[in-house]
Amino acid sequence: MTRDRQFQTTLIAPSIFVLLLIGVFPLVYLLVVSFQGITMTANDTSFHGLRNFAQLMQDTRAWESLLHTLVFTGVALPLELVLGLLMAQLFIDHLPGRPVFVALLVLPVVVSPIVSGATWSLMFDNRFGPINQVIGWLAGREVTLLWTIQPNLVYPAILVAEVWQWTPFMFLLLLAALSAVDKSQLEAAAIDGAGYWRTFFRIVLPAIWPVMAVAILIRGLDLFRLFDIVWALTKGGPGTTTETLSIFTYVKGFQQFETSYTAAVALLIIFALSVAVTLALRRVQLSR
Amino acid sequence: MADLKISALHKYYGTMHAVRGIDLEIPAGEFTVLVGQSGCGKSTLLRTIAGLEDIGSGTIAIAGEVVNDLPPRERDIAMVFQNYALYPYMTVYDNIAFGLRARKTPRSEIESKVQAAAKMLAIDHLLDRHPRQLSGGQLQRVAIGRAIVRNARLYLFDEPLSNLDAQLRDEMRGEIKRLHQELGKTMIYVTHDQIEAMTMADRIVLMREGRIEQQGAPLDLYERPATKYVAGFLGSPAMNFIPAQLVADGGGLALRLADSTRLALPAQRAARYATQRDRAVTLGVRPEHIGRARAGDTRAGLARCAADIDLVQPTGSRTYGTFRLGGQEVIAELQAHDVPKVHEQVELAIDMNRALLIDPQTEAVL
Amino acid sequence: MKVQHRRQVTQAARFVGAVLLTVCFLFPIYWLFMMSFKTADEIYAYPPVWWPSGLQLGNYVVLFKDGDARAVWNSLVVSSLSTVAAMFLGTICAYSLARFKTGGDHLANWIISQRMVPPIAVVFPIFLLYVWFHWVDTYFGLILLYTAFNLPYVIWMMRGYILDIPIALEQAALVDGYTRWQVLWKVVFPMCRAGLFATAVFTFVFAWNDFIFALVLTRTEVTTYTVQVTHYFGGQSNFWAKISAMSVLGTVPIFIVVGFMQRYLVRGISLGAVKG
Question: Which helix (H) or strand (E) element contains residue B291?
Fold first, then answer.
């Protein structure tokens, strides 16, 4: 069967080559450089041991950026999940023109996060944005909230943009999952006398849980890497109020050129994510 | 338990008229089988009784109470589904207890009822398992268990045995019938299998294209079908149908077939049809009424014919021989050990006392 | 008919809800589009103008005149070519994994793990690699990168789709005398067409909307539209006009692609979750 072997090798070789180049090399690089002392000013490639990592542990700005990232994740993910589920419930029974609605509701997802950020910058503009205008109507007076500048307003602004863009993603996934629920089970429950909520929690939720778990994993991962939307709205500001972990890394690497330090940060991020994902996957597998 | 009364029931799926005016009265405690081909409306009818489908017009009344507008949970019915519809993420115990828990039954009562139902169905050793760990037959029992544990007044079965293999089906048929004898509840059972209908029903309702073709006790429908459809539906192998013409024969009547074979009618029957001479009819005769002619058997009404058997199908308990008569393929039933060779000429006797005469246009039995 | 009535009423209510929901979600997009057609006066009018007086294309003209619109062209070239490359390489690799289980679990797991790598962590070393190869600000460089980053996704999805195709079809073709390559082209690819389209759409969208790689790996030649948009941020007087026009220019192609492939997209997202 050497011909089959040859065939297989030809099939996978180009992909593996590309992946090695773009996937493995950076990791090796990070591993090496994070133990060195390369900064903007010094090209020190000597072995610095764990100094970079120790410095990272003490870096309050780094920890704050982690906190900011976790706040975004912790608020946006449940919001998107619940809203997506509610939307899916709205559409699950027969509705005239449903394909049209679904097609239109998908549009926020395919817009670039940069464009999404830019759009909401527009919407939240303090003088010319419709958001302030509508609030002004409700409040009865002119309102010029500085959504992208005032520290206690930037988080809601970013969250609105983020939830706006990704709830339809959850919605699509959950709609598909809800459609796949065995109808005869729901009928049996109806005959057995179960009310709406009992049927939902005991029968529907367990049935859609596998898809929900995947959705949470995917979006959780994406939220952890949040960059584009925040960059477009606030660039991490004001100051470092909304600086996420990714923005922090970018600043350290491409603005301050702290090469080795950035490598250490990057390595830790990869490590932390790998651990989290492996644990999460194992839990999902177990619960099935 | 309760009786069921359906009046003038119509149901449409868009423009398709699935149920066309059904009137049905089922007394309490009876085991009724709705039988018919796929698409005849039997499942639809069952689901409207359950409340899973809306009706177009008409009324459904259970124990005298009109239930048209009641949702399923308020009709006090139980249903067994074709694909069991068990909840995969619950144990067998929880599956059976689900309906009781929904109605806020106290826990001790749930415990005793579930155990009783499980014991009755011989699944009490499976209560901790999950559906994916069970075989088809066990799943079916759990589905039945879930239905009987609530002690509803009406039980509905939607082709519950269709997903089981033949041997299991035979077993479960008997078990369901025994269950009915024990519980004595009103049960409505849908199937496309006429054997299930014949063996299990107190009353068969044969449906065709949204209407009731005929209803009655199984043997009534079998021996006195009202139409050709009923006659051909019940019985396996199916009844033979041969075009014929009533002609005068000596002092009485005979049937002349397309190949000029004449089959004389016995005197009593000839008297009934005396006024219908020269009429074209369809002759219907069951395979079990065509057998090998035996010398010395001179009962009235036995018409003899010579047959050239071209296909032999032994089943072990009897043998079926196919031959041509009157231009049709006809099946005769022979004794088990009587296995003729292909193209062997045999002398057959047709019991014309049991044969049916059918109007070719209306398909009504004369 | 009380039950039926109630059902109709709820359906009507749900329809109204659906309409409201759609309006809410589409409003920002409407605002963006509408902004791009406004004149400078309208943009800075107070209270804000919700409906421009006319569809004036002045903002777009400026972009084309200044040559900025080239960014959209760059995005198009880079996204299309990387999608084609990723789809081709990825699908044949997926075939090998699906049918021959090449490399067993280890290879499959490694490929999947590549997808989890956060771009921000690797963008710096990749930048340095590119500098060394002189690939920065080249079409080839960006195309190679997007191909590489989309490969794991393509492989993962197409493997699932290929596994769904009954192997009997390929075996019949082999018995009929086709070579393995012919089987791939004539039997496998056509059979998983739906999966190919769905995955291709996703791959394209991912490359098209990417920001961070484009930001780091391009300078002036291969700027994609996402980076171009951010160039207009920062306090000039007409930056809203350019931002919105550029955004629209970059978004309309995606809307068109998604519009055509809409069926596949929806199925792709849902199947992706089920297969995951």
Answer: strand B290-292
Q: Which amino acid is at B73?
A: R
Strand runs labelled E in B119-239: 154-158, 186-191, 203-208, 211-216
Q: Which of A192, A197, A198, A288 to mutate to test the interface with B (most CBs of B within 10 A)?
A: A192
Same domain, C48 and C167: no
* Helical H segments across chain C, by residue range: 2-36, 40-43, 58-65, 70-100, 104-116, 119-133, 139-164, 167-176, 180-182, 189-191, 193-209, 212-217, 225-231, 239-260, 262-275
**B151: DSSP letter:** T
Output the pLDDT for position B231. 94
Rounded to the nearest angstrom, the gap between the alpha carbon of residue A40 and the centroid of all alpha carbons in its chain is 31
Q: Are residues C142 and C50 in the same domain?
A: no
- DSSP letters along B245-290, please? EEEEETTEEEEEETTS-EEEPPHHHHHHTGGGTT-EEEEEE-GGGE
pLDDT digits (tens, 9 = 90+) for A192-213: 888 888 899 999 999 999 889 8
Residues A114 and C211 sit within 8 Å (Cβ to Cβ): yes
pLDDT band of residue B284 (cuts 50, 70, 90) is very high
In a domain, A276, yes or no: no
Nearest by Cα to C203 from C260, C243, C257: C257
Interface contact A118-C247, CB threshold 8 A: yes
Residue A265 counted as domain residue: no
Count of domains observed in chain C: 2
Q: Do A130 and C48 touch (CB under 8 A)?
A: yes
Are residues A86 and A169 in contact, defined by beta-carbon separation less than 8 angstroms?
no
Q: How far apart are CA C137 and CA B216, in angstroms?
A: 86
Q: pLDDT confidence of C260, banded at 50, 70, 90?
A: confident
**Is residue B146 predicted with pLDDT exceeding 80?**
yes
The backbone torsions φ and ψ at residue B353, rounded to the nearest 5 degrees and listed phi first, read -65, -30
Task: Kindly list the partner chains of chain C, i.e. chains with 3 or more CB atom pairs below 8 Å.
Answer: A, B
Indicate which of C1, C2, C6 best probes the interface with B, i.e. most B CBs within 10 Å of its own CB: C1
Q: d(Cα B2, Cα A269) in Å, to the nearest integer?
A: 68
Residues of each domain in chain B carrying CATH 3.40.50.300: 4-233
With CA atoms as reference, the chain B residue closest to C5 would be: B69
Say yes or no to pLDDT of A235 above 70.
Answer: yes
Q: In CATH, what is the architecture of B240-358?
A: Beta Barrel (2.40)
* ipTM of the modeled complex: 0.85
Q: Give the Cα separation of A207 and B89 in Å (integer).
A: 8
Would you call A95 and C14 a contact, using CB atoms and an 8 Å cutoff?
yes
Q: Does an H or E element contain B35, and which? A: strand B31-35
Chains that touch B (3 or more CB pairs under 8 A): A, C
Q: How many CA atoms lie within 13 A of C6 on its CB side?
A: 7
CA distance A200 to A194: 9
Domain span including residue C7: 2-59
Same domain for C129 and C31? no
Regarding the domain delimited by B4-233, which CATH topology (the fold level of the hierarchy) does it fall under?
Rossmann fold (3.40.50)
Q: B53 to chain C: nearest residue by CA?
A: C4
What residues contact A65, with CB distance under 8 A and at least 6 apart? A240, A243, A244, A245, A247, A248
CATH code where residue C120 lies? 1.10.3720.10
Both C9 and C93 in a single domain?
no
Total number of residues shown for chain C: 276
Neighbours of A197 (CB within 10 A): 8
pLDDT at A288: 44
H helices of B20-106, in order, are 42-50, 92-102
Angstrom distance (rounded) from CA A119 to CA A157: 12
CA atoms within 13 Å, Cβ hemisphere of C84: 5
3 state DSSP class of B356: strand
In a domain? residue A263 = no
Query: What residues contact B164, with CB distance under 8 A and at least 6 apart?
Result: B136, B137, B140, B172
